[in-house]
Design goal:
By secondary structure, the chain is α+β, with helices and mostly antiparallel strands. It has helices at residues 7-19, 37-52, 65-71, 94-100, and strands at residues 25-29, 57-61, 74-79, 82-88. It is 42% helix and 22% strand.
Amino acid sequence: LGGNLSGGQQQQLAIARALAGRPRLLLLDEPTEGIQPSISQEIAQVLRHLKEEKGIAILLIEQKIDFAMKISDHYYFMNRGKVVNESSAEAVTSELIHKYIAV
């Protein structure tokens, strides 16, 4: 039963269930929330594979910048529900991140 799985396993199950429908677009809202770092790395690897090898577009909402940087091609920075900046992955700098991310 899914309820008997760990948080990381439940997140992986949720992604697998979403993939069962063979989507062209995968929407993920903070897939690393409450997940231990080693599982987050596995999820990042799977998402990169889906994007690069399977051609699935991914819309990722994520607060953990290091995770998002591993798989994203483009970024939108939001503040109170409004896009305040957008950037290609190549153009994202630590200064840009610190400008929009509160620590």
